[in-house]
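$ ./design --mode recover --in tokens.txt
reading tokens...
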């Protein structure tokens, strides 16, 4: 039986295919052509802005690059439009790489500003270069040919436009449901978690920026051969902003939001362009005002855009469990019990004049659970972040399995077998528990974006889901694997983070205040899971504020106060220590 989830896209595809054969007025075919072209560009923005959290106002310039490349090459040099498409894509990738290289390492507003500058300058270039026909542009662009058929009418190029648009949508949705897709979806919540899972966040930012640019350039190429002429006006900053409108109004969270947004904006814009000047009694682009107001309203009342409201009618079922017989992922050689695993040697961190961690040393041997405790502000989290590479050391060193890791990026430390959770849970709230945990298997798998888009990664995906399910079983959460992570209570969310860390196949598990904010019952469940992991031979470093929680659980405790190691010993030693009592009583009660 086909579900409504499957029937809807098939019906939409069938309708798209027969429409030009029906007596539909030419006007609507033209509208649909524009919607397909616009949707491709806003699809790139869904990937870039909605999923990856990066904003670009310069997509119209990439459309222009694709359009002008084919216009120049086909009219001035007689080069085939298909070859010109290849050249356009190469130029686009080169321009996108340069922009990405310059801006993506910087945080904040550099990318939006750089894309505005890029959009303005390219548009200026188009409008002022003799060679590009200045503001008149280039006319006489030949029609496209496919298998000897000339696509010289709206109804014939329609098929090519929509073939590209549908293929792009399928490629992007395949990408989002894959190993690189999970890494891309992790970008939006900041880079720390993704890096801790071994993801090079810079690389994926570049990947989505380049992909979005390619989608825009292909749309521009189709546009040029559909219009048969180009001029600078559709590639300016106004359209750059309009593409963002489309993505936001339709819904930046998913592929079909791009199509919804393109359709709504194109159709409403046309109507407004005829109605508003009549109402106002003057000519002008009054629709911009309406769009501005609409955008504010959408952001206020439907921040996820219009598509999620439509998608409610087609609820997705749980992911079919087809990984039952998938072979296990490869695992690393395990340290032998008692082997020196982590050697923290006089690590120091200064923030300006404040010494947050003052030459702290301790060791962890394989099979131990060590607790790092101390009152608020003692420097526990900073020490933890120094070990995991989130912060750089002022001085001192960290050795892991005999190898110096101090100063390495956190993703390189993760690669060596340290895996962590976070004091404030970091997850992808709109992904299922299973998918969140599968992100932990990132470093144990290899498929890249191209394989994912072509769906060549399914065997590896099965192995990843099988591993994620195994880790969820290990912590007793297999029953919740299909739930959205954001819908879980804090206790299960913290356990899910532990399963995600276990999915990396760690030699050492680092837990940052795992019991913080948990209710008594949830703390008990967590302690039970940690005891069981210890029973299985897992080595754990636990940063914890709650003394009672660590007492019954750890082999050894390192107590910090004011950035310095106060004492190290068994829980009994620590409990009996007058200094520790003073530290806790003095600062807390
Ligand atoms: N990025 C930073 N810049 C400046 N000071 C910082 C920074 N991070 C931490 N500190 C300071 O370093 C000291 C140690 O902080 P840290 O968060 O490591 O303590 P903690 O023991 O983990 O405390 P808590 O239990 O409250 O998390 C504090 O005085 C804190 O204000």
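writing sequence...
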């Amino acid at each position: 039986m086909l579900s409504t989830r499957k029937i809807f896209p098939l019906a939409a595809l069938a309708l798209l295919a027969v429409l030009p054969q029906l007596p539909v007025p030419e006007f609507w075919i033209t509208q649909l052509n524009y919607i397909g072209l616009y949707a491709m560009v806003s699809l790139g923005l869904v990937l870039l802005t909605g999923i990856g959290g990066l904003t670009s106002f310069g997509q119209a310039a990439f459309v222009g690059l694709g359009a002008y490349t084919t216009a120049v090459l086909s009219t001035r040099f007689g080069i085939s439009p298909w070859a010109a498409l290849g050249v356009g894509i190469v130029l686009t990738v080169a321009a996108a790489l340069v922009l990405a290289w310059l801006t993506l390492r910087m945080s904040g507003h550099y990318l939006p500003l750089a894309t505005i500058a890029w959009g303005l300058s390219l548009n200026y270039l188009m409008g002022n270069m003799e060679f590009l026909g200045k503001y008149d542009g280039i006319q006489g662009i030949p029609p496209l040919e496919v298998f000897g058929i000339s696509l010289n009418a709206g109804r014939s190029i329609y098929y090519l436009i929509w073939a590209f648009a549908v293929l792009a949508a399928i490629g992007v949705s395949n990408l989002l449901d894959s190993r690189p897709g999970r890494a891309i979806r992790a970008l939006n919540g900041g880079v720390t978690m993704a890096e801790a899972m071994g993801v090079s966040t810079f690389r994926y930012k570049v990947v989505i920026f380049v992909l979005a640019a390619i989608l825009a350039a292909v749309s521009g190429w189709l546009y040029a051969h559909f219009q048969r002429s180009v001029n600078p006006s559709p590639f300016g900053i106004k359209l750059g902003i309009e593409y963002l409108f489309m993505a936001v109004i339709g819904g930046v969270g998913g592929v079909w939001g791009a199509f919804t947004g393109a359709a709504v904006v194109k159709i409403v814009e046309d109507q407004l362009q005829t109605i508003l000047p009549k109402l106002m009694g003057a000519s002008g682009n009054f629709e911009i005002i309406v769009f501005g107001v609409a955008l504010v309203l959408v952001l206020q009342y439907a921040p996820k855009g219009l598509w999620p409201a439509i998608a409610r009618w087609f609820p997705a079922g749980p992911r079919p469990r087809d990984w039952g017989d998938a072979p296990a992922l490869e695992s690393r050689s395990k340290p032998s019990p008692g082997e020196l695993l982590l050697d923290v040697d006089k690590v120091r961190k200064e923030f300006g004049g404040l010494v947050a961690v003052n030459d702290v040393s301790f060791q962890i041997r394989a099979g131990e659970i060590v607790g790092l405790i101390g009152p608020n502000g003692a420097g526990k989290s900073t020490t933890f972040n120094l070990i995991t590479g989130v912060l750089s050391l002022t001085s001192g060193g960290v050795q892991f399995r005999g190898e110096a890791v101090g100063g390495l990026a956190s993703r390189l430390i993760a690669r060596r077998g340290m895996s962590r959770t976070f004091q404030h849970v970091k997850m992808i709230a709109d992904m299922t528990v299973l998918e969140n945990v599968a992100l932990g298997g990132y470093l144990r798998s290899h498929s890249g974006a191209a394989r994912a888009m072509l769906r060549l990664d399914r065997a590896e995906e099965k192995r990843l889901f099988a591993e994620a399910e195994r880790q969820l079983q290990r912590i007793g959460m297999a029953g919740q694997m299909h739930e959205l992570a954001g819908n879980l209570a804090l206790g299960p969310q913290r356990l899910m983070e532990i399963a995600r860390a276990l999915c990396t196949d760690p030699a050492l598990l680092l837990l940052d205040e795992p019991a913080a904010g948990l209710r008594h019952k949830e703390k008990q469940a967590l302690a039970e899971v940690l005891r069981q992991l210890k029973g299985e031979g897992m080595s754990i470093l636990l940063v914890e504020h709650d003394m009672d929680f660590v007492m019954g659980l750890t082999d050894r405790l390192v107590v910090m106060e004011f950035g310095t190691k106060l004492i190290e010993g068994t829980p009994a030693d620590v409990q009996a220590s007058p200094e520790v009592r003073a530290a806790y009583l003095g600062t807390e009660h």
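exit 0
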